Hints:
The protein is mostly helical. 53% of the residues lie in helices and 11% in strands. It has seven helices and three strands. It is extended, with a radius of gyration of 23 Å.
Amino acid sequence: MSEPTAFQAAPKPTYLDLLNKRVETKAQRTTQVRVALDPSLMDQLDEARESLAAERAKRGKMVNPALDAAAERVAALERQLLDTCLVITLHALTADDMLASRAKATDKTPMGELWKRDLTQAFLRAEDGNGHLVEDIGQDDWARLLEVIPAGELQAWHGKLGRIAGAPDFPTSAKS
């Protein structure tokens, strides 16, 4: 069989080909969570954004040095935050992953502990804010970080993990 030309479509793979590819590659959906490693920068950024919003409300869209300075402060803090955050890629948990994550859980295990176990099990890789792999951050480091993260962040991240673990929402035309 010859290679398809620009005018010929590649042959459509069979459903068995697609199924085999998914099984062989163990393809899972993924999601990313941003982790601010310096929470004080988040506080400073929130304050700077509030100041910028107040300055805009006060001055409208007029050009003025105070508005420019507030906007530059926000931009500088955003750049600084980008340099001090991790982007963690998580993969959807299979049923076996979920069993491993919950192996030692009891009825009395706190929900936050279960979230930490699932998030640890789902760790795939860490990148810097610019998308470069951070090789010295692994699953054990992620687990250590999860021990000190506020419950709200844990819940939000676990929610993202839960959304990718569910069946995808197909376009209306693909539903039966």
